[in-house]
Amino acid sequence: MYQKINQSLYTGRQSNKIHYLHEKIKFVDLDQHLTKSIHKPVFSILGYCCDEGVKRNKGRAGAAAAPDMIRKMISPLANHFPDSLDILDFGNIYCDNKDLEKIQTFTSGKIQEITENQIFNIILGGGHDLAYAHFNGLKNAFPKKKIGIINLDAHFDLRAMDEQGTSGTPFYQIASENPENFQYLCLGIQKESNHKELFSTAEKFGVKYLYNQEFVIQNYENVSRLVDALTSTVDLIYLSIDLDGFSSAIAPGVSAPSPLGFQIDIVVKVIEDVIKSEKLVACDIVELNPTYDIDNTTARLAARLLYKIFELKISQIQQ
Ligand SMILES: N=CN[C@@H](CCC(=O)O)C(=O)O
Ligand SMILES: [Mn+2]
Ligand SMILES: [Mn+2]
Fold first, then answer.
1. What is the reported pLDDT for 38?
2. pLDDT digits (tens, 9 = 90+) for 218-274
3. H helices within the chain, ranges in order?
4. Closest ligand to 166 CA?
5. pLDDT tens profile 4-25
6. Model pLDDT for residues 23-60, shown as the tens digit of each residue
7. Residue nearest ligand 1's atom 2 by CA
8. Which residues of 20-36 are buried (b: 16+ CB within 10 A; e: fewer)?
9. What is the pLDDT of residues 182-194, one digit of tens each?
10. Residue 222 — φ and ψ, nearest 5°?
11. Residues annotated as binding site for Mn(2+)?
């Protein structure tokens, strides 16, 4: 189910001066006891190579290949990160035998372990079923903390779970299992992509949301007010970025593209605000589907967002 990273994914110019991220990133076996490998502040990535949730949700398969494609796009980026900080790649978790529940439980355990080691980790999906695993890992790592969720997405992903979880059910699962502690803000909701019952479910669970046409830079003041309202009432924030919420002109490589999706500028502003709150403990970027990508546009976007988040978090640590 777990594999250490294949180093050949990371290629690019050789500077011998660590000018590029493929020269900076270190590969760590997640099966080793983590604290042995860690001597400095650490940021890391972990791949969730699973599209079983997307398949169960009747979507287009392919997200399992996303983490390695994002790594390829991270690889040649210029390294401006300090030597005093390590960036680790913990490798990939794979979904064997269509057993989504097993991979989610395994992933939660690994997230808990990474988080308890004070590592700031970004998980690369995979389908959005990752969110259920991610939240549970955080909940176990911080049992006494109130964890708020900010999801940038075209979809609520609040589909009722009939028998099995899918990529469309993660926040319903979280809400049902944590009725007293469900703080969920969803930005970029598209009316055309969420049926009426999903809006009723959102209301029932007290979900706060903005439509795609409201999630624009011209409306930044209101966006920022909603983000602040959430961050000020919780202890910690888990940020989930579903690439299918972006305009399909920007992010074509997803299972469910959004011609009227959001733009990059407002997403960057939200990332800045969330990091400024000093409560961001976890982040994932999900739903890339390399099969439908065009010149790796969506994978490159994922890589740049990851870079931006690391950069902002690091400058906060250094202040
Ligand atoms: N994680 C994605 N969830 C969406 C997919 C929509 C679609 O496939 O059209 C959802 O279930 O609503
Ligand atoms: Mn989603
Ligand atoms: Mn979505």
1. 62
2. 999 999 999 999 999 999 999 999 999 999 999 999 999 999 999 999 999 999 999
3. 21-24, 34-37, 52-56, 66-74, 100-116, 130-141, 170-177, 196-204, 220-231, 264-276, 297-318
4. 1
5. 998 889 999 999 999 999 999 9
6. 999 999 988 867 665 667 789 999 999 999 999 999 99
7. 168
8. bbbbbbeebebeeebee
9. 999 999 999 999 9
10. -70, -40
11. 128, 153, 155, 157, 242, 244
- In ligand 1, which atom is closest to the CA atom of 286? 1
Dist. CA 107–CA 109, nearest whole Å:
5
The pTM assigned to this predicted structure is 0.98
Report which of 62, 136, 142 is spatially closest to residue 101, judged by C-alpha positions: 136
Report the C-alpha gap between 21 and 10 in whole angstroms: 9
Which of 223, 225, 255 is CA-nearest to residue 242?
255
Region 56-84 average pLDDT: 97
Please, which residues have CB less than 5 A from ligand 2, an ion? 128, 153, 155, 157, 242
Contact (CB, 8 A) for 189 and 174: no
List C-alpha distances in Å: 175 to 25, 155, 267: 36, 15, 24
Question: Which atom of ligand 1 approaches the CA of 170 most closely?
Answer: 1
Please report the pLDDT score of residue 32 as a whole number. Answer: 80
Residue from 50, 54, 57 to probe ligand 1 pocket by mutation (most atoms less than 8 Å from CB): 57
Q: Which CATH superfamily is domain 2-318 in?
A: Ureohydrolase domain (3.40.800.10)
Q: How far is the CA of 168 from the centre of ligand 1 (A)?
A: 5
The strand pair at 183-189 and 208-211 is best described as parallel
Task: Tell me the mean pLDDT in the region 168-187.
Answer: 97
Q: What is the pLDDT of residue 41?
A: 72
Distance CA 178, CA 184 (A): 11
